[in-house]
Amino acid sequence: MERNKQFLILVLFAALARITCAQSLVKPAASAPAESGVTANVEFGGTSDSDGQVYELNSSVGYDFNPHFGVAIGAPVYFINPSSSTGGTSGSGLGDPYLALHLKYPGSVLNFGSTLAGAAPVGDSKKGLSTGRATFDWNNRFEHGFSGLTPFVEIGIANTTPDSRNFLRPYTTLGFNTHVKGGAGYDVWKFISVEASGYDIIPSGQQTVFSRVNQGQGTGGTVHHGRVFEGNQQTKGGASIAQDDGFSAAVDASPGRVLDVELAYTRSLVYDLNSVSFSIDVNLGHLYRKNQR
Predict the structure, then answer these.
(1) Long-range contacts at 23-30 (CB < 8 A, ≥ 24 apart)
(2) Euclidean distance between CA atoms 213 and 228, whole angstroms
(3) What is the DSSP string of 41-87?
(4) Which of 96, 106, 197, 268 has a CA between 20 and 30 Å from the CA of residue 209?
(5) Which residues of the chain have pLDDT under 70?
(6) Cα dihedral sign for 167, 279, 67, 255?
(7) Distance between CA atoms of 52 and 160, rounded to whole angstroms?
(8) Domain 2-292 classification at class level
(9) How confident is the model at residue 248, as a pLDDT?
């Protein structure tokens, strides 16, 4: 099974490399001019499942040097409300501040985006707000849109399990992994769109899982379906304790360039866990640039 997954990853990389090379031979199509200058975003979101609720307030500021390259710094603040079954208590705290570099190249054949983020270990690992170590995540996205439909593939590597807008996990991890996501978005009406996708987290080597819903030092709630984060605050083990795969479905509304709202459902097949999430993103940088004109 592990060999099959590694082979699939190699095939994906090879296929994406061929597509990227083919794109370089094609003249990019005309597109709307991208904005440059100061960027600033405030995003509030949360995920609710049988283990409780995890909320995140994420603020960032940065600068786009040109339509292709930019940098941003930010820091998340977490609000945790565990279920009574996990033995945890409600709490909040600062997560790990991060620096992110992003690159994007739209094209007539393929749109490409890449983000490399590094985080400093400032948050409390005993609350699951940090791993206690510096972490990184390098994610690459390839997409092509036509007639309102936009298929995409994302592939990346990290030494922690990244959260997403669709799923704020009840835990975080320390250990190398490859993460893959694929799906499609569709523009339903004006500023309303929907998206369906599948994901796979493929760890390798030793992993440590830090629970956000069990802050105790000993055994807490009963562990279901391999959810080690329910029974202990920290668990060390092989790759299998951090492996996860599943699928998500989301509805997104962007009435203008300032506000973006998303509702999502995620099903973790490994943990047999159903989650619902929301996210509200405010683009303060667009307002700032608009007022400077």
Answers:
(1) 23/107, 23/108, 23/109, 23/110, 23/112, 26/107, 26/108, 26/109, 27/108, 28/106, 28/107, 28/108, 29/106, 29/107, 29/108
(2) 11
(3) EEEEEEEEETTEEEEEEEEEEEEESSSSEEEEEEEEEEEEEE-GGGT
(4) 197
(5) 1-35, 217-222, 293
(6) positive
(7) 21
(8) mainly beta
(9) 98
Residues 175/90/121/279 CA torsion (nearest 10 deg): 80
Per domain, the residue ranges of the chain are: 2-292
Strand order in the sheet with 171-174: 171-174, 207-211, 234-237
- What distance in Å separates the CA atoms of residue 68 and residue 17, rounded to the nearest whole number? 19
Give the pairing type, strands 69-82 and 177-189: unpaired
**Residue 110, helix vs strand vs coil:** coil
Q: What tokens does 216 get?
A: 């105790």
- β-pairing, 149-158 with 135-143? antiparallel
**pLDDT, tens digit, 9 for 90 and up, residues 153-181:** 999 999 999 999 889 999 999 999 999 99
- Which residue is associated with the tokens 């790990």? 96
Q: How many residues does the chain have?
A: 293
Interacting residues of 20 by C-beta distance below 8 A, sequence separation 6+: 110, 112, 142
Q: Determine the pLDDT at residue 222.
A: 63
- Which of 59, 41, 45, 43 minimizes the C-alpha distance to 166? 45
Q: Residue 125 carries which DSSP code?
A: G
55: left (phi over 0), alpha (psi -120 to 50) or beta: beta
The pLDDT assigned to 221 comes to 58
Strand ranges for 106-167 from DSSP E: 111-119, 135-143, 149-158
